[in-house]
Amino acid sequence: MAEGIRKVKTSDLELKDRLVSIQRVTKVTKGGRTFSFSAIVVVGNENGIVGHGLGKASEVTTAIAKGIEDAKKNLIKVPVINGTIPHEQTAKFGGARVFVKPASEGTGVKAGGAMRAVLESVGVKNVLAKSKGSSNPHNLVKATFAALLEMRDPYAIAEHRGVKMEKVFNG
To answer: pTM for the whole thing?
Structure first.
């Protein structure tokens, strides 16, 4: 596993789920077309823990339930400081590029579609976000997660450098 990945245990967490996208997919067989559903789901406790999952089934409710179970297996911890993210970050996944930037109190979540679901599930209240390139919800969610995984709070930076907290800001 990469150094930046911070796995979280699911026990005693109260997670809220958000449906990002649901699509009807078709499999063509000798007997005709077989329809099923694919659902992308984001779960989070709105306090720095978030995960995403994909569920596929012949019924919508089953696909969503499978997506939630998959999302609970992929939880990560994200630093949230005073309702926003610690610093600017860009990330890319497939054709989707995302840019997230901390915002002052009262700004709200300025993000579109799939990014909004992820950022609200994390618990970020004030953030500016921009998606560039592909608007594919799968890739947008994964690019947003890549950006959030690269976030570092001042405490982690101080510990990594082996200096006191005051030195991180004063140089």
So the answer is: 0.86
